[in-house]
Amino acid sequence: MRIAAITWIVFFMVFALTAICAIFATLATH
Amino acid sequence: MNTVIRGTFWFGIYLFLIAFPLAVALLGRRPGEGRGFWVEFAVACGYVGLAIMASEFALVSRAQSVAGIFGQDAMQHFHKQMGYAATGFVLAHPTLLFMQGLPWGMLNPFSQEHRWVWRFGAIGFWALILLIFVARFRKRLRISYQWWHVTHAFITCVAVLGALVHAYLVGHDSARPAMRILWMCYLFVLFGLAVQYRILRPLKMWRKPWEVMENITEHGSARTLLLRPVAHSGFSFAPGQFAWLNTGKTPFHFDQHPISMSSSAENGSNGEIAFTIKGLGDWSREVVPFLTPGTRMWLDGPYGVFSVDRDQGPGFVMIGHGVGITPLHSMCKTLAARGDSRPVVLFYCARQFEEFIFREEFEELQTRMPLKLIYILEHPSEAWRGESGHITSDVLLRHLPKYYKRYQFFVCGSGSLMDSVEQSLQEIGVVSELVHSERFDVV
Fold first, then answer.
1. B419 touches chain A (CB under 8 A)
2. Is A5 on the interface with B (CB under 8 A)?
3. pLDDT band at B128 (very low <50, low <70, confident <90, very high)
4. For residue B170, is pLDDT > 90?
5. Contact residues, B window 31-90, toward A, CB-based 8 Å cutoff
6. Cα(A13)–Cα(B19) distance, rounded to whole angstroms?
């Protein structure tokens, strides 16, 4: 159960990071 | 360095590995190269998915420096869960691109209309879907563990190489030297880990063979293999740890199984070690019963952090189900051999009385150590006067001593049992830091 919780945290963290990078890439290079 | 610092360090390294391609892609950008948010997001999902896929092997490559902190069983489960996470990112990658107008036909790896760079991407994509499907439904598809292991390794190579070639050739961000060097580094690290795992480790095992001394029939269709090291001193282990057993002609054989040591960690004079295996799968039913004294075997171990030696306390509560009793048996035998006077309360659950392995050994251990043994039968006969049903908070409270909240708790059994036991322990006020469990039903 703890491992599943850690995986969800990692998943959402990386997902948020991915979205932030995509926003930066869009804003900085247009 | 203590375990928390080392754990944080390695976890940080992992996060860095899966997020670094994003940073490299972003830092190399110049004005005018933007492609709109959804395309950028789709590409970023592809980078993260590929980085997670490329890092998956590191989680199961049994590197002692990492496995010794988290426990190899936890690493196997994290590997499985992150496999699903990678699939989520990889699925998002083409889906978002198709929503932006790219043709769905690009997912056809046999299409002659598309360039090889897309076809490699499609090969990697479908290989990953197949990988997840087979791992998820292995038992329903009736694929043996041995065959699954071989095909898992093969399909992984196809998925990762297909995706890497796609990322390397696709252009735009990937056309930059920094990005190409990065993917080459991932490939070299993967190759290095594979050489260590498939060549150097088996070579080391080959120099240290083991031999079956006895193959003992136990209760509940289990067998105990007593092994001795041949021309070497064997290894010492902490009670509760496990090793990978390989019964192939050479240690290069794919067929290997994680089995807990069931004997005392205070080894016998010849360094012999016992492993107890229940006849649950093809290997344990069709190979183990026929291993005769003198048969050569190969051991890779010890692994695991599930041990009374690692988590010390004024007393121990052990909860085992079925063959999950084996590491707990090793712990009890070791404590008895050391003359340890700390109390142990053991809850032992099985479907039927005949399935209680080591009944006689535990009764003998009760005469040598402060061991309180509680049998719990899931399907009791009418004559049974002991505990029955499942391990609930009521059952636990009936038998636990007054100061149980200071004890260390060790739980080993099927995944569903451990979920319900962890819940019951929480209900009776045991803090999660004192609860240790081991799960190996990964696929």
1. yes
2. no
3. very high
4. no
5. 31-37, 40-41, 43-45, 48, 52, 74, 77-78, 81-82, 84-85, 88-89
6. 10
Is the pLDDT reported for residue B217 higher than 60?
yes
Residues of A in contact with B81 (CB under 8 A): 3-4, 7
Give the number of other Cβ atoms within 10 Å of residue B26's Cβ. Answer: 19
Residues of A in contact with B35 (CB under 8 A): 26
| Top-confidence residue, B375 or B62 | B375
pLDDT band at B240 (very low <50, low <70, confident <90, very high): very high
Which residues on B lie below 8 Å from A25 (Cβ)? 25-26, 29, 34, 40, 44
Question: Which H or E run includes B349?
Answer: strand B344-350
Domains of chain B: 3-205 (1.20.120), 210-303 (2.40.30.10), 316-438 (3.40.50.80)
Q: Give rounded-to-5 percent helix, strand, coil for chain B.
A: 50, 15, 30
Contacts of B283 (CB under 8 A, 6+ apart): B144, B145, B146, B247, B255, B257
Residue A26 is nearest to which of B30, B34, B78, comparing CB atoms? Answer: B34
> What is the separation, in whole angstroms, between the first and last Cα of chain A?
44
Smallest Cα distance from A16 to chain B, Å? 11
Give the angle subtended at the CA of B313 by the CAs of B308 and B317, to the nearest 5°. 65
B25/A10 Cβ within 8 A:
no
- pLDDT, one tens digit per residue, over B410-421 is 999 877 788 889
Residue B96 exposure: Cα atoms within 13 Å on the Cβ side: 20
Nearest chain A alpha carbon to B83: A7
Q: What is the pLDDT of residues B11-63, one digit of tens each?
A: 999 999 999 999 888 887 776 666 788 998 999 999 999 999 999 988 888 88
Q: How confident is the model at residue A26 (pLDDT cuts 50, 70, 90)?
A: confident
Query: What's the pTM value of the predicted model, to 2 decimals?
Result: 0.84
The residue of chain A nearest to residue B18, with distances taken between CA atoms, is A14
Domain spans of chain A, in order of start: 1-30
* pLDDT reported for residue B1: 60
**Structure ipTM:** 0.91
Residue B438's DSSP bridge partners are B412
Q: Which residues of B touch A21 (CB under 8 A)?
A: 22-23, 25-26, 40, 44
A24, closest residue in chain B (CA to CA): B26
Is residue B159 very low, low, confident or very high in pLDDT (cuts 50, 70, 90)? very high
User: Rounded distance, CA B440 to CA B80, Å?
Assistant: 12
